[in-house]
Each structure stands twice: as C-alpha cells, then as structure tokens.
Design a protein that fits this description.
This protein is an alpha/beta fold. It has 17 helices and 10 strands. The strands form 2 sheets. It has an 8-stranded mixed beta sheet, sandwiched between helices. A two-stranded parallel sheet has the order 6-9. Helix 13 packs antiparallel against helix 14. The longest helix has 23 residues.
Length: about 425
C-alpha cells in the first residue's frame, strides 16, 4: 500500500505540539526489548551532557515489535527538557521505512541536526552523541558515517563486499558505508525524504548503502567519526548473513545502474576526514565455522557449477573449480578471483532483466568461500593486521575497475539457455 506519510496521526499530532527542535535522534527498532533501554539512556545522557541548551527529541521508530520493545521504551524517563516519541511507523516493514519516519519528523521539527543509532547496540556510550552530532552542528558537514573498532570477523559483508565496491565505484574511502549509526544535516535528511524509493526494496533493506551512495553522488559534505568499539548482536556469516548479502548486493547493483554516469568517470579514491580518536578498547571476538563455510561453498559448486560456468569467464570459473577441490584448512579464494567474480556478477545483473534475485542466490556460496579464505588468511593476525588485508583488497578493486567497465559495456544478450536452467533451481 502506498502511504503519503510514514507517521501515524498521533505521532504527527505530537510533533505538531512540540513544534520545533534543534536535534532529533532516531532509533529504528524491531523486537529489541533487551537493548532499547540502554540505547535510549545513553542518548539521553549524551544530549544532556553535550547539548543541554538545545531542544532535543528522541523518536523510537518501531516496526511493530511483538515483544515489549515499545512498552520498555515508553517507560524510560528522559533527562529534563528532552522529548520522546514512541511510534509504529506506517508503510512497508523494514529499516528504510523506519528511517523515512525519522526524516519526516526531522523536517516537521526543522531540526539543525539529525542522528540515527541502531537499537541492538550494547557498546553505545553518551559520547556517541557528540561524535555524530558535532560535525553537523559545528563543522557544517551534511553526512557523518561511523568508524568502529571491530573484531576482524565482524562485518564480513562490509569487509569483503561493500567497502571495496563502494570505494572503487564512487571514489570515497568511507570505511563503514552500512554501519547503521549516522548523522545528517537538515538539508541531507530533506533530500533523503524527498526521494521516491519508499515503495521499493530499499524501504525494506539496503537503506544504509543507499544513503551513503546518495550522499556521495549528490555532493553532500561527508566525514567520518570514530565511535570506538561496536558491540551488537553480531551474526555468524555462515548461518545468518546470506539474506543480508543478497539484499545489500541487490541494492548496490541497482544503484550502479542509476549512477552509471557518475562512477564510470571515477578513476581513484580519496580519503574522507575522520574526527575523534580511537579509544583503544578491544572488541569481543567472534567465532566463525570455516568448515561449515567451505562445506556450503562446495555444495553450491555441486548445485550451481554448470550455471557458474555459463555466467563467469573461463578464468574465473577455473579458479572457482580449483577452490572446490581444497579442504577447509588449506582453502583459499584469492583476492583477484573475488574481484573478478564480483565485477562479473555486477555486469551480469546489469545485462539480465529477469531472474536477478536467483542470480544473487546462486552467488551466495561464493561469498561463503571468500569469507572462509579471509578467515584462513588472517587466522593468526590481530584485528589491526587483518585490516591491512582489507585495505589491500580495496586497492585491488580500484586497480581492476577498467575490467568492470569492460564487462559492464558488453552487449546485452538474452541468455535464454541460462534463464531456462534457472527456472528449475
């Protein structure tokens, strides 16, 4: 259903009563009763500590939680001179729609700065408020992305896909393009709100990378802010991240089509200012089952091997085939192989007009293989040492961008035989 507003009548009325505010903090949530109190508490303390003289509003934008998230949020008492709204947003379920409600509230209140933080955070501190808001209020930045101190196996989609591809395409070294915790100027929030994407897949997933990409393409002033350690409900890449991998890749490939005019002319990348200082805290380790990842990669080869042979260039397919013969301990999926695979996937997605989601489904085992290879390569490294590997990988994506353009500009063809085979998958 197409909603003209994401705000329910009682939320709109409450905003009308408040009239104006200087700062809006949005917390999109769904079934987060165990963490929502801590997040609200830290936000409230931060606003009181750093921006006591400014009028602040906290809006909890809920996706219809079936636990006690909303009740818990309502019960928490804020610091004096702060307002709180707890509301179920209207529209398609997903973080994108939750953020739409927050952007709309920011417009109605004519705020000077807006920030959003995830509702499952356990490491958020009151300092996060200053770290995210200060660049907007005091340095005139429009978009503030986070920088975290993360364990080497937290953020495998960011480390192996999003950071590399986004940097090579758009030329800005934004380390956490899908970090989840951002800040915006009123103008940037207004731009996001005005875009006609709220009935698309972006409203359900992919909103973080959509915002980051649009901030770059539309020349908003962008910076990053150190937030220290991020401790949240981390997920094992082998058991929980396949849907996210497909959803993020879908959004990135779709954005590539929309912004082709921009990224084709980008030749190199540049640093993005980072404010704040790392606090040196050590992130919690995350265990990864390499045996399971390699097993899922090999099952994928058994099921999709002939399709992979039809989709990828002979050299790429041969490297995939060779990897399928390796055991878990020696398993390796070289960086050059991974760069070629992602670039070839992007161009195939661009050429096809049907079965696009199935294309990403059959690519998921390849992501498992890349993560397994990354874990094996960095097993005895610290998180700081593993970060060097991530940076080297990002450089490889940049250096091979001409290959992407060549693949992207190949003539369209119907690929009827492949599509016929996909129907049976």
């Amino acid at each position: 259903m197409n909603y003209g507003t994401s705000l329910r009548p009682y939320t709109a009325k409450r905003l009308e009563e408040i009239e104006r505010a200087d700062i809006l903090v949005g917390i999109p949530c769904y079934n987060n009763e165990t963490t929502i109190t801590h997040v609200i508490q830290m936000v409230s303390h931060g606003l009181n500590r750093y921006y006591k003289s400014l009028r602040s509003v906290i809006i909890v934008s809920d996706g219809g939680s079936t636990d006690d998230t909303r009740e818990t949020a309502k019960d928490f008492q804020l610091k004096p001179w702060q307002e709180k709204i707890v509301s179920i947003y209207r529209g398609n379920s997903g973080k994108g729609t939750a953020l739409r409600a927050i952007f709309e509230a920011a417009q109605r209140l004519s705020v000077k700065a807006c920030m959003v933080v995830d509702s499952d955070l356990r490491s958020i501190s009151s300092k996060w408020v200053k770290s995210l808001i200060e660049p907007v209020l005091e340095r005139s930045y429009d978009f503030v992305a986070p920088v975290y101190n993360r364990y080497k196996y937290d953020g495998t989609i960011t480390n192996n896909v999003v950071y590399n591809l986004n940097r090579a395409l758009y030329g800005r070294r934004i380390r956490q393009p899908i970090g989840g915790d951002f800040a915006f100027s009123q103008g940037c929030a207004k731009y996001f709100m005005s875009q006609d994407i709220w009935d698309t897949a972006v409203a359900r997933y992919g909103i973080d990378i959509w915002m980051t990409t649009n901030a770059v393409v539309n020349n908003f002033r962008i910076c990053q802010s150190n937030l220290g350690v991020k401790i949240h409900d981390a997920k094992d890449p082998g058991t929980h991240l396949a849907p996210m991998f497909r959803e993020v890749l879908w959004t990135m490939f779709t954005l590539m089509e929309q912004n082709e005019y921009f990224w084709k002319s980008v030749k190199t990348s540049e640093e993005v200012n980072v404010f704040g200082v790392e606090n040196g805290a050590v992130p919690e380790p995350i265990s990864v089952d390499v045996d399971a990842l390699v097993r899922q990669f090999k099952v994928g080869f058994e099921h999709f091997g002939m399709l992979w042979k039809s989709i990828f260039l002979p050299g790429s397919y041969q490297m995939i085939k060779d990897a399928a013969k390796m055991n878990a301990k020696e398993f390796v999926f070289e960086t050059d192989t991974w760069v070629s695979i992602l670039y070839e996937l992007a161009s195939t997605f661009h050429r096809w007009r049907q079965h696009r989601y199935k294309l990403l489904e059959l690519a998921t085992p390849l992501y498992y293989g890349r993560v397994a290879s990354f874990v094996n390569k960095t097993l005895d490294m610290t998180s700081e040492e593993a970060e060097i590997i991530v940076e080297q990988q990002a450089v490889a994506f940049e250096e091979n961008k001409e290959f992407l353009i060549q693949m992207w500009e190949r003539p369209f063809k119907d690929d009827l035989d492949i599509h016929h085979k996909l129907k049976s998958v």
